[in-house]
Write a structure and sequence with these properties.
6-stranded mixed β-sheet, 11 helices, 2 domains, CsoSCA_cat, 352 residues, globular, 5-stranded mixed β-sheet, Beta-carbonic Anhydrase, Chain A, alpha/beta, 60s Ribosomal Protein L30, Chain: A, Carboxysome Shell Carbonic Anhydrase catalytic domain-containing protein
Length: 352
C-alpha cells in the first residue's frame, strides 16, 4: 500500500520516523564532514524563498548536502521584506554571514508544471506569469535592502518546473537558462554560460552557483528514468506551520508555511482548502490529516522554552483558523506540536 493510502495514524508515525532518520543522518560524522568540506569549497551562503508546496526541495533537486540551503517558505512563495518578522530574520541571517566574511545567494523562486497548469501553484491560482512577476518584485526588495550592486547579497530569480524538478534561471537581460533543455554533456560549459548571463555576479558566488546547476542537471536526467505520477500530483495530507521541516523531502506530503506573514490565517485557510480538495478527489483517504507546528531553538534553557511557547501558539492558532473556516475538516485534524534542535535537527514532540 502506498504511503498516502495508509490510515492517518500510520502516516503520522511514518512522518516522525522520517524526522528521526533525518536527524540521525544530519548529525552523523560522515554527513557533518561532507557539509564542512562543501562549505570550505563553496562558502557562499544559500537561501531559498519558495512556496509551501512540498514538491519544491531545492537541496534534493540540486544534490546539495543537507543543511546548506536555508529555506524560507510561504504560500505561493509570496513574501514581502517589509514584513517585520521576515525582515528581522533575513537581516540577522545576512549579518551573521557578513561577520564570517561570506556572501549570500538568494534564490527567489516560483514554480509551475509544464505538463498541466493544474499542477502549478495554487497560491497564485495557477497563474505562472503572476507568480513570476512576484518573484521579480521580491528581487527588487532585496536590492533595496541589501544593495543593488549585489556585492554581498545576490538575489536570483529561479523558476522550478515540478514535473522534472528543473531550475530555470532568469537574467536581467531577459534571457533564461532552462536546465531541462540542457544535455548532461553540457556540464563542462555551465560556468561560462552562467558568467555570460550574470556578468555582475561576484566570482565566488558564481563558483558556488555552478555546483547547484550541475547537480540539478544530473537530477533532472535521473527523474526522467523513473515513474513520476505520484510525485507530480497533489497528495498532501500534512500542514506544517513554523520552521524546522527540512526532513520533509518527500514530494507532495506536506504544505509548509513559514511564520513570516502578518496574516498567517490566509495561508493556513488555503492549505486547509488544498487538503480538503485532496480528500474530495480521492487523492488521500478522508480519515484525517496532520497539523504540525514547530519552532527551532539553538540553546537549551530560555531559548528552548521560548521555542515551546512559539510552537504551541502556532498550533493553537492554526487549529482555530481551520476550525472556523472548515469545521467538518477540523473534526478530522490531528494536531501535534514540536520543537527542533537547530544544531542536530532533532525534532521533539511536546506533550498535549
Amino acid at each position: 500500500m502506498a504511503l498516502h493510502e495508509k490510515p492517518i495514524g500510520e502516516r503520522i508515525d511514518w512522518l516522525f520516523g522520517l524526522a528521526r532518520q533525518h536527524a540521525a543522518e544530519f548529525a552523523s560524522p560522515e554527513t557533518q564532514l561532507a557539509r564542512a568540506r562543501y562549505l570550505a569549497e563553496h562558502p557562499t551562503a544559500i537561501m531559498a524563498l519558495k512556496c509551501m508546496d512540498g514538491r519544491i526541495n531545492i537541496a534534493i533537486a540540486t544534490r546539495t548536502p543537507r543543511g546548506i540551503v536555508q529555506p524560507f517558505r510561504n504560500l505561493g512563495g509570496m513574501f514581502n521584506l517589509g514584513w517585520p518578522h521576515l525582515g528581522e530574520v533575513l537581516a540577522e541571517y545576512v549579518q551573521d554571514i557578513v561577520h564570517d566574511g561570506r556572501r549570500a545567494l538568494a534564490l527567489v523562486t516560483y514554480h509551475y508544471s509544464k505538463g498541466d497548469p493544474a499542477r502549478g501553484c495554487a497560491g497564485f491560482a495557477f497563474d505562472t506569469a503572476a507568480a513570476r512577476e512576484h518573484t521579480f518584485a521580491i528581487r527588487r526588495q532585496f536590492e533595496q535592502v541589501f544593495g543593488g550592486g549585489h556585492g554581498t547579497v545576490y538575489p536570483l530569480v529561479c523558476g522550478f518546473e515540478t514535473d522534472e524538478e528543473a531550475l530555470v534561471l532568469h537574467a536581467d537581460s531577459g534571457e533564461t537558462l532552462d536546465v531541462a533543455a540542457l544535455a548532461p554533456d553540457e556540464a563542462p560549459w555551465l560556468r561560462q554560460r552562467l558568467a555570460r548571463l550574470f556578468p555582475d555576479m561576484p566570482g565566488q558566488v558564481l563558483n558556488d552557483l555552478v555546483p547547484l546547476v550541475e547537480g540539478n542537471l544530473a537530477h533532472v536526467a535521473a527523474t526522467r528514468g523513473r515513474p513520476r505520477e505520484l510525485d507530480i500530483e497533489h497528495r498532501e495530507w500534512t500542514i506544517c506551520l513554523g520552521r524546522g521541516f527540512d526532513f520533509l523531502h518527500t514530494p507532495n506530503l506536506a504544505l509548509i508555511i513559514g511564520p513570516y506573514s502578518p496574516d498567517l490565517g490566509d495561508p493556513v485557510r488555503k492549505a486547509a482548502g488544498i487538503i480538503q480538495a485532496n480528500m474530495d478527489c480521492g487523492r488521500i483517504p478522508p480519515d484525517g490529516f496532520l497539523l504540525l507546528a514547530s519552532a527551532p531553538y539553538v540553546d537549551p534553557g530560555m531559548d528552548r522554552a521560548r521555542a515551546e511557547l512559539k510552537a504551541r501558539f502556532l498550533s493553537d492558532f492554526a487549529a482555530g483558523v481551520i476550525a472556523e473556516a472548515q469545521p467538518e475538516l477540523a473534526a478530522r485534524m490531528h494536531v501535534h506540536t514540536a520543537v527542533l534542535d537547530w544544531r542536530t535537527r532533532a525534532l521533539t514532540r511536546l506533550p498535549d
